[in-house]
Amino acid sequence: MGAGPVGENIADRAVQGGLSVAIVECELVGGECSYWACMPTKALLRPAHALAAARRVPGAREAIIGDLDVDAAFAFRDGAAAQWDDSGQVGWLEGADITLVRGHGRLAGERTVEVERDGGRVTLTARHAVAVATGSVPVVPDVPGLATASPWTNREAISTSSVPTRLAVIGGGVVASEFATMFAALGSDVTVLVRGDGLLGSLEPFAGERVAAALTEAGADVRTGTSATEVVRAAATGPATLTLTDGSTLEVDEILVATGRRPTTDDIGLDTVGLESGQTLTTDDTLRVLGPDHAPIAWLYAVGDVNGRALLTHQGKYQARAAGDVIAARATGATVDDGPWGAHVATADHAAVPSVVFTDPEVATVGLTAERARAEHRPVRVVDYDLGWIAGATVLAEDYQGQARFVVDTERHVVLGVTFVGQDVAELLQAATVAVVGEVPLHRLWHAVPAYPTLGEIWLRLLETLGRDTATAPTS
Ligand SMILES: Cc1cc2nc3c(=O)[nH]c(=O)nc-3n(C[C@H](O)[C@H](O)[C@H](O)COP(=O)(O)OP(=O)(O)OC[C@H]3O[C@@H](n4cnc5c(N)ncnc54)[C@H](O)[C@@H]3O)c2cc1C
Ligand SMILES: NC(=O)c1ccc[n+]([C@@H]2O[C@H](COP(=O)([O-])OP(=O)(O)OC[C@H]3O[C@@H](n4cnc5c(N)ncnc54)[C@H](O)[C@@H]3O)[C@@H](O)[C@H]2O)c1
């Protein structure tokens, strides 16, 4: 159920494992990520990043002869969203030998899915398993007047064909930070209402601080410790007035709600299998749903955003590879490899989730923050380094601004977590993910020589700061 990036990958792996698969989709094949999230947002942020990068390089800066072309940027976004037409992905499903059933799916008892379409119903009975990959939907907070003020969610914001003169963004997470960056670059007067004391609260504190400072420099008004208490909007297309916690008012042309997401489980028949409508589908590490007795339900899987483990496309697709493979293995009686880091489990969800926030500066993170490592009572040393001091950075941009943090386990001599903030740090992330997942010993990292002059030299600076004595090769 659900043909987003996660559903597609479960289906593909199960077919490759020898099963036949039907996939049920009520909107567009490709899901939120393809049409209203990852792809179009990154495409609409990219012109702003490219322009900012050029402005930081003498010689290139002087060649800029105009402002960001909003219509051309929208056209680039439209292409990234495949013009909101899923025929390409439907063709991919056909090529992968997956049967598409369009309509709204609901569980109807054990291994059964009822699909409502064109006013009729089709019942599908699975021989082996049902996987729920219905994703997530935005949460609209219960602020008087907000729900009826036609607020934007990510969908309206990313598919707009006009730039609001004044935009209020409610929230301080990833969606709020990326859209604030985007609309400030497109020319909106952006006000970000952050309930807490900073942006990107779950990451290292310097990440949110640097992103907030850059947004402010770009002309946005980032107000921390501030929420809306009431919204008044006479007409859906007219101005809206927000009353804020400090008693002041703010008039804007659009309001973007970016206050988190909840699983799409309201209307998928969970009651027919003893679960509660609207609940997050908690799973074991092979992605089987835990029933009311906390034991896994043998035939029911929940994968991707709907299980709340890590709301990221790449992490959902990683779970999908494990789920599709283990469904096929259990169906065919093959060996199930479900120990930690086995082929049929999503162990990395607990230890090494990589993510990039595509603001300017970018934020790239994997593994544990210093706070989380300490909360887990790990013996840690934190190493901070100014990315602007790296030779590669000095030629990438004039006055490069950035910071790196490594969280190192001082007993096991491995890296537990990494955070990079700065221009173009996204492409540094995979090396960090390999180091964390592989638990590469520090003494071996001394032999992973970064090319000169690249940003990757940050790894050498980390090791030099730690000192080689802390990274001695084992004698045995
Ligand atoms: C603005 C924004 C930007 C993002 N950017 C990134 C990014 O850059 N990188 C990243 O890794 N992640 C990003 N994410 C997160 C990413 O979009 C999600 O993690 C990802 O889409 C989850 O995939 P999924 O398949 O689990 O769910 P979805 O993509 O939501 O797909 C679920 C599918 O199920 C269908 N469905 C739902 N209910 C039913 C039903 N009852 N019957 C049939 N079909 C049903 C839906 O129509 C949908 O097609 C972003 C999210 C947002 C909101
Ligand atoms: N580049 C990426 O990988 C990317 C981009 C966008 C989204 N995502 C994913 O999508 C998910 C959802 O993102 P998000 O930003 O919506 O959620 P989030 O959980 O990251 O942030 C929600 C924010 O809203 C605030 N908030 C919550 N309730 C509020 C209220 N009532 N009033 C005011 N503020 C309130 C929170 O304090 C927090 O700052 C994330 O988990 C993220 O992983 C990823």
Automatic annotation (TrEMBL):
Cofactor(s) for this UniProt protein: FAD
Q: Which Pfam families match?
A: Pyr_redox_2 (PF07992), Pyr_redox_dim (PF02852)
Which GO terms fall under molecular function for this chain's record? dihydrolipoyl dehydrogenase (NADH) activity; flavin adenine dinucleotide binding
Q: Which residues form the Pyridine nucleotide-disulphide oxidoreductase dimerisation domain?
A: 353-459
Q: Does the keyword Nuclease apply?
A: no
Domain FAD/NAD(P)-binding intervals: 2-315
Disulphide bridges in this chain? 33-38
Q: Which InterPro entries match?
A: Class-I_Pyr_Nuc-Dis_Oxidored, FAD/NAD-bd_sf, FAD/NAD-binding_dom, FAD/NAD-linked_Rdtase_dimer_sf, Pyr_nuc-diS_OxRdtase, Pyr_nucl-diS_OxRdtase_dimer
Q: Does the keyword Flavoprotein apply?
A: yes
Question: Looking at the record's lineage, which domain of life comes first?
Answer: Bacteria
Q: What is this protein called?
A: Pyridine nucleotide-disulfide oxidoreductase
